[in-house]
Write a structure and sequence with these properties.
The radius of gyration is 18 Å and the shape is globular. About 70% of the residues lie in helices and about 0% in strands. With about 230 residues, the chain is mainly alpha-helical. The longest helix is centred in the first third of the chain and has 26 residues. About 45% of the residues are buried. The protein has a single domain, classed as Up-down Bundle (Growth Hormone, Chain: A).
C-alpha cells in the first residue's frame, strides 16, 4: 500500500483505537481481568496465574490467547481472499469485527463483573472478543498506518518522546504529522479506556459498553465506504 493512502487512513485508525480502550475496559474490569486486544498482558497473566500469584485466572488468558490466534488466522485468510477478488476487504473486515463484538455483547447480557473466577459465559464473551481483535490486528497490520496500530501505544509513546525535544532523536523526529499521529494514538487509547472505565464505574451493563464499541466500529466502516478501495499490492 502506498504511504499516502496509508496516512489517509489515520483518522479512521484513531477512532478504532478508541474502541480498543472501550473493549479493554470491559475485559479488564468485568470479564477477567483479561486482555482481549493487547495479548502481551495475557502472556504475563498466564505466567502469573500458573504459579498462583495475584489470584489471577488461568482460564481467562488461555481462552483469550487461543481465540486471538483463531481470529488472526481467520482474518488473514478472509482479507487476503477478499482483496484477491477485488472486494472492499477493509470495510468488510470491520463489519465482521463489529458483528463479533455485538455477539459478545449478547453473550455478556446480564453478566455481573468478576475479578477472579470467570464463569463459562464470561469465558465465552472473552473468546468472541479476542477472535474479533485477532481479525482487527490483521487489519491493522495490512494497512500499516504509521504510529497507529490501534491495539497498543507503546511504540507510539516511545517515538513521541524520543522524537521530541526531550529525546532529540533525529531518526524518530519525522515532522508534525508523525508527532500528531503518535499523540493521537496515545490520546485515543486513553480516551477509550477512560470512557469505558467511567461506564463501568457508573454501574452500567458491560453488554451496553460492548454494543457502543460495536456501533463505533460499524460507523468507521460506513464512513470509509465513499473512499477508494484499498489494495496492499
Amino acid at each position: 500500500m502506498q504511504a499516502k493512502a496509508a496516512v489517509a487512513l489515520a483518522p479512521y485508525m484513531v477512532v478504532l483505537t478508541v474502541t480498543t480502550g472501550l473493549v479493554e475496559a470491559a475485559s479488564l474490569l468485568a470479564l477477567g481481568p483479561v486482555f482481549t486486544a493487547m495479548q502481551t498482558g495475557n502472556v504475563l497473566f498466564l505466567g502469573f496465574g500458573l504459579v498462583g500469584e495475584g489470584g489471577l485466572s488461568v482460564a481467562a488468558p488461555t481462552v483469550s490467547l487461543g481465540a486471538f490466534v483463531v481470529g488472526a488466522a481467520i482474518g488473514a485468510r478472509l482479507e487476503t481472499r477478499l482483496e484477491a477478488d477485488r472486494h472492499r476487504w477493509f470495510v468488510i473486515a470491520l463489519v465482521v469485527e463489529a458483528l463479533l463484538v455485538a455477539v459478545a455483547a449478547g453473550t455478556a447480557w446480564g453478566l455481573h463483573p468478576v475479578h477472579r473466577a470467570p464463569t463459562t459465559r464470561h469465558l465465552a464473551t472473552i473468546a468472541v472478543l479476542s477472535t474479533a481483535f485477532g481479525i482487527r490486528n490483521v487489519t491493522s497490520l495490512r494497512v500499516q498506518v504509521p504510529d497507529l496500530p490501534t491495539t497498543l501505544v507503546t511504540r507510539a509513546m516511545t517515538a513521541l518522546t524520543a522524537g521530541s525535544v526531550l529525546g532529540h532523536d533525529a531518526l524518530l523526529a519525522r515532522g508534525r504529522a508523525a508527532t500528531a499521529r503518535r499523540a493521537a494514538s496515545v490520546g485515543a487509547m486513553f480516551a477509550g479506556g477512560l470512557a469505558g472505565a467511567s461506564w463501568m464505574h457508573a454501574g452500567w451493563p458491560v453488554a451496553g459498553l460492548l454494543l457502543v464499541a460495536s456501533a463505533v466500529v460499524l460507523l468507521v466502516a460506513v464512513a470509509y465506504l465513499p473512499r477508494p478501495r484499498l489494495y496492499t499490492h
